[in-house]
Specification:
Blueprint: H1 16-19, H2 28-41, H3 44-49, H4 61-70, E1 71-83, E2 90-101, E3 104-116, E4 122-126
Antiparallel strand pairs: 1-2, 2-3, 3-4
Length: 127
């Protein structure tokens, strides 16, 4: 099965190891892709785990879980990345996540910021 993140890689060789906690994304874009895959698979624990501490106060896991479950995820398109590479401390990823909810289709266009934690793991800051 191809990974839902749009990488054209098999899920087991792409985002699945991240979602299972077996490894961590090396770049901000890979974290963005894995977070999209987490929504597709309803893995809201991963979404919460990859939030920067300053971003956790307004995160509503129940609402996120409900949204992920109700949506039919159609695809992810990365529009641009700024920094966010292995040697960077911060990064920005612009993307469009396409999904259907009920009979209505949506394009969620976002520019997200990421930073590395003290332990070197990429975290989502805001979007």
């Amino acid at each position: 099965m191809l990974c839902p993140c749009g990488s054209n890689l098999e899920f087991q060789n792409c985002c699945d190891p991240f979602l299972q906690g077996k490894s961590h994304p090396e770049t901000a874009e890979k974290l963005m892709r894995s977070r999209y895959s987490a929504y597709v698979h309803g893995n809201i624990d991963y979404i919460e785990k990859t939030l920067a501490p300053e971003s956790k106060s307004d995160f509503d896991a129940k609402s996120a879980r409900q949204w992920a479950k109700q949506a039919q995820w159609k695809g992810l398109k990365i529009l641009s990345t700024q920094q966010g590479q292995v040697g960077d401390a911060t990064g920005v990823v612009e993307f469009v996540a396409t999904y259907k909810q009920g009979s209505e289709g949506f394009d969620h266009h976002e520019t997200s910021t990421f930073r590395k934690s003290e332990s070197g793991k990429w975290l989502f800051v805001d979007g």
